[in-house]
TrEMBL record:
HAMAP family: UDG. The active site is at residue 84. It holds the Pfam family UDG. InterPro entries: UDG_fam1 (IPR002043), Ura-DNA_Glyclase_AS (IPR018085), Uracil-DNA_glycosylase-like (IPR005122), Uracil-DNA_glycosylase-like_sf (IPR036895). This is Uracil-DNA glycosylase. It is an enzyme of class 3 (hydrolase). It catalyses: Hydrolyzes single-stranded DNA or mismatched double-stranded DNA and polynucleotides, releasing free uracil. PANTHER family: URACIL-DNA GLYCOSYLASE. SMART domains: UDG, UreE_C.
Length: 240
């Protein structure tokens, strides 16, 4: 089997560990360097190495840390937390809820864009690639950064959540006045990692059809609310 959609073959675990560490931009590496030396992270890298060597996994190796590549630690304004990457071919690009250009929009992303239409009047976009959001300071963070093809949740509880919880804690502790958008029960559990006295936490149902069709997603107004908070702080608003 190929290791991922880029047909990249992983080498030794230490090579992968060094690659992933070096892939992080300096601001994030400074915040997370202690995590790399912990036993759980080395076990995680061994697991990821084996998975990509033996199965088709997503996103491509070069996109595993894309959320950090596009959004410097010091530039984060808004944090959106997803669960794990899309597991279909050519979908995942390393940003939660985002897909590559030209890829059909998954149901959750469809509902995100519908809420954008309802909330701020934005025309439904042709591309589901959310890189432009990330470049403006929206950290699109999946709790689990990799997944096996067609097996949702297959890389959960292997160590990624410990790592991404450290990301959330670091943002909470070392930044001020961020906006955390917690959509659905899984994301809402991350509120315990965030200092609500320093940051804004907005919660709603998940944009998945199951939640949205029950009335827990549409009308949350999170996009306009986030921009109002940013504007009130004197920060540049997000062009969603």
């Amino acid at each position: 089997m190929t290791c991922d959609n880029h047909n990249i073959t992983f080498e030794k675990m230490n090579d992968l560990l060094n690659t992933l560490q070096n892939k992080l931009v300096p601001s994030w590496r400074h915040q997370l360097v202690d995590e790399f030396e912990k036993p759980y992270f080395k076990d995680l890298i061994q697991f990821v190495d084996n998975e990509y060597s033996e199965h088709t996994c997503y996103p491509g190796k070069n996109d595993i840390f894309a959320a950090f590549d596009y959004c410097d630690f010091n530039d984060v304004k808004v944090v959106i937390i997803g669960q794990d990457p899309y597991h279909g071919p050519n979908q995942a690009n390393g940003l939660c809820f985002s897909v590559k250009d030209g890829v059909k929009h998954p149901p959750s992303l469809v509902n995100i864009f519908k809420e954008l239409e309802n909330d701020i009047g934005k025309t439904y976009p042709q591309s589901g690639n959310l890189e432009d959001w990330a470049k403006q300071g929206v950290l699109l963070l999946n709790a689990t950064l990799t997944v096996r093809e067609h097996e949702a949740g297959s890389h959960q509880k292997k160590g990624w959540e410990t790592f991404t919880d450290a990301v959330i804690r670091s943002l909470s502790e070392n930044r001020e006045q961020l906006i955390f958008l917690l959509w659905g029960g899984f994301a809402k559990k991350k509120a315990k990692l965030i200092n609500a006295k320093k940051h804004s936490i907005l919660t709603s149902g998940h944009p998945s059809p199951l939640s949205a069709n029950r009335g827990y997603w549409f009308g949350n107004g999170h996009f306009s609310a986030s921009n109002k908070i940013l504007n009130d702080l004197g920060n540049k608003m997000i062009t969603w």
